[in-house]
Write a structure and sequence with these properties.
It contains 16 helices and 11 strands. It has 423 residues and is α/β, with parallel strands linked by helices. The chain folds into 2 domains: 34 residues, no CATH class; 387 residues, Alpha/Beta hydrolase fold, catalytic domain (Rossmann fold, 3-Layer(aba) Sandwich), CATH 3.40.50.1820. Strand 1 and strand 2 form a beta hairpin. The longest helix is centred in the middle third of the chain and has 20 residues. The radius of gyration is 20 Å and the shape is globular. The two termini are 31 Å apart. The structure holds 2-acetamido-2-deoxy-beta-D-glucopyranose (NAG) (2 copies). The site of one 2-acetamido-2-deoxy-beta-D-glucopyranose has 8 residues, from loops.
């Protein structure tokens, strides 16, 4: 069931010229490639997505939808550019989905000119940002309490439910709200995993997704890249599954402490800033060419935004089994859930719409051979696009200072080509 909100396209056009029009015009002008205008880093760290987007004079709509199993998800929409740039009805819709421990904030926190959501809005797209169940903006349920003591019912979900239930509900709602028959999907890392899950379990969604742009795609994780996670995967898969049985549920919620540490220890001039930078190196690869250390306080204030323990367990299971399979509950529960002792594999050949894979040699989380395998198994792969900068890392696909040049501009070009061919 979806909670429906009436949406009137005309209402956006009615907004008058803002008092900051000249300032804004100058900013729009600077929005040429590479321009940066986050004007107050510490303030940006303390705002949530709606506040942050509005601060930079972009329109923001907050929508709440409910999944069929009762999770209440926050969807954020930037319907057009700043100062009424590109206010039109019936524009192509782009739905953007964050990675593990991320949120819609990941697509705006780098600021206008650099963050994907603003770039897409200025380029004339109707931009929707998703939030997976359990993160800061989707930490609600009709009956279950995420903070309940001795009861982790809220947290009993893996990547499977996020793909199968959250994505499908979000996509249906967006299509209904915009009156479009299809949308373009951009996912980052886990945002690609849950897409592959959704579309292989629900092949009928190939019709609704005009094109899919996978940034740092994660399906198979068979090649060890020598990281701690790879080494520990077999143990971690068991330990994490047991932890969820024992009642643990949430991992790394949005944290006041990290926000505080980000501000006190990681801002420019702080002696600890290099250490803060190395934390990013540990979690997602960090590369001097793309890393803007000035932005660390904003990054840490918004990310991690929380996730369910079973998401980690699910990833670890796939690493351990070298497969891409549904969540493994253990033999008895698997029999009940799937009718087989071993969880079924996701059938990628059922994904028949055009899929573009953006990947990089410098990405320590995504191996080139795994990307090849994914590409070969997809039902309608369109193109594999290797980022031309060798050191481009996992995190750079969303936060790289030149992500626009290396990735986003190409995504926009492909969306336009597909959209025009569908007219
Ligand atoms: C890093 O971010 C700050 C604050 O937004 C900005 O002023 C600076 O130009 C950025 N540096 C690069 C290399 O983009
Ligand atoms: C995967 O899907 C394709 C297309 O529907 C089908 O032909 C194939 O048998 C499926 N593979 C498995 C292992 O179920």
């Amino acid at each position: 069931m979806l909670v429906i909100f009436a949406i009137f396209c005309v209402s956006f056009a009615a907004a008058g010229r803002s008092p900051h029009a000249d300032y804004v015009e100058e900013l729009v002008r600077q929005n040429a490639f590479g321009a940066r205008i986050s004007d107050n880093i510490l303030e940006d760290a303390s705002l949530d997505v709606p506040e942050l987007v509005r601060k930079y004079n972009y329109p923001l709509e907050e929508h709440f939808i409910m999944t069929q199993d009762g999770y209440i998800l926050g969807l954020h929409r930037i319907p057009h550019g700043r100062d009424n740039n590109n206010v039109r009805c019936n524009k192509p819709v782009v739905f953007v989905m964050h990675g593990l421990l991320g949120s819609s904030a990941d697509w705006v926190l780098m600021g206008p000119g650099t963050a994907l959501a603003y770039i897409l809005a200025e380029e004339g797209f109707d931009v929707w940002l998703g939030n997976a169940r359990g993160n800061y903006y989707s930490r609600r349920h009709l009956t279950l309490n995420p903070d309940a003591e001795n009861d982790n019912s809220f947290w009993r979900f893996s990547l499977d439910e996020i793909g199968n239930l959250d994505l499908s509900a979000s996509i249906d709602y967006i299509l209904l709200a915009t009156g479009r028959s299809g949308l373009h999907y951009v996912g980052m890392s886990q945002g690609t995993t849950v897409y592959f899950i959704m579309n292989s379990l629900r092949p009928e969604y190939s019709e609704k997704i005009l094109s899919m742009h996978a940034l740092a795609p994660v399906a198979y994780q068979t090649q060890s890249r020598g990281t701690l996670m790879d080494a520990l995967a077999p143990i971690a898969a068991d330990a994490l599954s047991w932890a969820t049985v024992l009642g643990f549920g949430e991992m790394f919620p949005k944290s006041e402490l990290l926000a505080w540490a980000g501000q006190k220890l990681c801002q420019d001039e702080a002696v600890f800033q290099p250490i803060c930078s190395s934390i990013f190196f540990l979690i997602g690869g960090w590369n001097m060419d793309q890393h803007n250390a000035t932005m660390i306080p904003v990054m840490l204030a918004h990310t991690p935004a929380g996730a369910g323990l079973r998401q980690f367990a699910h990833f670890a299971q796939n690493v351990a089994t070298k497969g891409f399979r549904r969540y493994d509950y253990g033999v008895l529960l698997n029999l009940a859930a799937y009718g087989t002792a071993v969880p079924p594999s996701y059938n990628l050949s059922k994904i028949t719409n055009p899929v573009f894979l953006h990947y990089s040699e410098g990405d320590t989380r995504v191996d080139l051979a795994d990307v090849d395998r994914l590409y070969n198994e997809l039902g309608g792969p369109k193109e594999k696009i290797l980022v031309s900068q060798k050191t481009f890392s996992h995190i750079d696909f969303m936060w790289g200072t030149n992500a626009r040049y290396y990735v986003f501009d190409r995504v926009i070009r492909d969306i336009r080509i597909i959209d025009n061919s569908n007219k």
